[in-house]
Amino acid sequence: MAAKDYSKLNKQFVVIDMYDDPEDYEVQAGVAIPAEHAEAFIAEVERIAVEKFGGATFSELLDCDENDESMDASSKKNFSDQLGRVIAAAERIMREGR
Question: Is 0.85 topped by the overall pTM?
Protein backbone atom coordinates (compact mmCIF):
# COMPACT_ATOMS: atom_id res chain seq x y z
CA MET A 1 0.00 0.00 0.00
CA ALA A 2 1.39 3.40 -1.00
CA ALA A 3 2.04 6.00 1.68
CA LYS A 4 -0.75 8.54 2.06
CA ASP A 5 0.17 12.10 1.05
CA TYR A 6 -1.41 14.08 3.90
CA SER A 7 -0.54 17.38 2.21
CA LYS A 8 -3.33 16.68 -0.29
CA LEU A 9 -5.94 16.47 2.48
CA ASN A 10 -6.52 20.22 2.47
CA LYS A 11 -10.22 20.44 3.39
CA GLN A 12 -11.32 19.55 6.91
CA PHE A 13 -14.81 18.85 8.17
CA VAL A 14 -15.74 18.66 11.85
CA VAL A 15 -19.07 17.46 13.25
CA ILE A 16 -20.21 18.89 16.58
CA ASP A 17 -23.58 19.17 18.30
CA MET A 18 -24.68 22.74 17.60
CA TYR A 19 -26.03 23.04 21.14
CA ASP A 20 -22.84 22.02 22.92
CA ASP A 21 -20.96 24.73 24.77
CA PRO A 22 -18.93 26.57 22.08
CA GLU A 23 -16.16 27.06 24.65
CA ASP A 24 -15.97 23.35 25.50
CA TYR A 25 -17.70 21.38 22.75
CA GLU A 26 -17.01 17.74 22.02
CA VAL A 27 -15.99 16.86 18.48
CA GLN A 28 -18.21 13.99 17.34
CA ALA A 29 -16.25 13.29 14.17
CA GLY A 30 -13.69 14.90 11.93
CA VAL A 31 -12.20 14.12 8.55
CA ALA A 32 -9.79 15.66 6.07
CA ILE A 33 -10.19 15.17 2.32
CA PRO A 34 -8.85 16.75 -0.86
CA ALA A 35 -10.67 20.07 -1.37
CA GLU A 36 -11.70 19.15 -4.90
CA HIS A 37 -13.96 16.43 -3.45
CA ALA A 38 -15.67 18.67 -0.89
CA GLU A 39 -18.91 19.24 -2.80
CA ALA A 40 -19.36 15.54 -3.58
CA PHE A 41 -18.50 14.65 0.03
CA ILE A 42 -21.18 16.97 1.43
CA ALA A 43 -23.75 15.63 -1.04
CA GLU A 44 -22.91 12.08 0.05
CA VAL A 45 -23.17 12.97 3.75
CA GLU A 46 -26.61 14.49 3.13
CA ARG A 47 -27.71 11.45 1.13
CA ILE A 48 -26.61 9.04 3.85
CA ALA A 49 -28.27 11.12 6.59
CA VAL A 50 -31.56 11.13 4.69
CA GLU A 51 -31.60 7.63 3.18
CA LYS A 52 -29.93 5.58 5.89
CA PHE A 53 -30.85 7.46 9.06
CA GLY A 54 -34.22 9.03 8.17
CA GLY A 55 -32.89 12.58 8.43
CA ALA A 56 -33.72 15.69 6.43
CA THR A 57 -31.52 18.28 4.77
CA PHE A 58 -31.77 21.86 5.99
CA SER A 59 -33.30 22.73 2.61
CA GLU A 60 -36.07 20.20 3.23
CA LEU A 61 -36.62 21.54 6.74
CA LEU A 62 -36.89 25.11 5.41
CA ASP A 63 -39.38 24.01 2.75
CA CYS A 64 -41.47 21.52 4.73
CA ASP A 65 -41.07 22.04 8.48
CA GLU A 66 -43.15 25.21 8.66
CA ASN A 67 -43.71 24.90 12.42
CA ASP A 68 -40.00 24.30 13.15
CA GLU A 69 -40.81 20.96 14.79
CA SER A 70 -37.26 19.69 14.27
CA MET A 71 -35.69 22.76 15.89
CA ASP A 72 -38.25 22.65 18.71
CA ALA A 73 -37.53 18.97 19.40
CA SER A 74 -33.79 19.59 19.26
CA SER A 75 -34.07 22.56 21.63
CA LYS A 76 -36.19 20.56 24.09
CA LYS A 77 -33.70 17.68 24.04
CA ASN A 78 -30.82 20.09 24.64
CA PHE A 79 -32.68 21.76 27.51
CA SER A 80 -33.52 18.37 29.02
CA ASP A 81 -29.89 17.23 28.72
CA GLN A 82 -28.66 20.44 30.38
CA LEU A 83 -31.27 20.18 33.12
CA GLY A 84 -30.18 16.61 33.82
CA ARG A 85 -26.56 17.72 34.18
CA VAL A 86 -27.53 20.57 36.52
CA ILE A 87 -29.63 18.26 38.70
CA ALA A 88 -26.84 15.65 38.84
CA ALA A 89 -24.34 18.34 39.86
CA ALA A 90 -26.71 19.68 42.53
CA GLU A 91 -27.25 16.17 43.91
CA ARG A 92 -23.49 15.57 44.00
CA ILE A 93 -22.93 18.86 45.84
CA MET A 94 -25.66 17.99 48.35
CA ARG A 95 -24.04 14.58 48.98
CA GLU A 96 -20.41 15.66 49.02
CA GLY A 97 -20.56 19.33 49.86
CA ARG A 98 -18.63 21.87 47.85
Answer: no
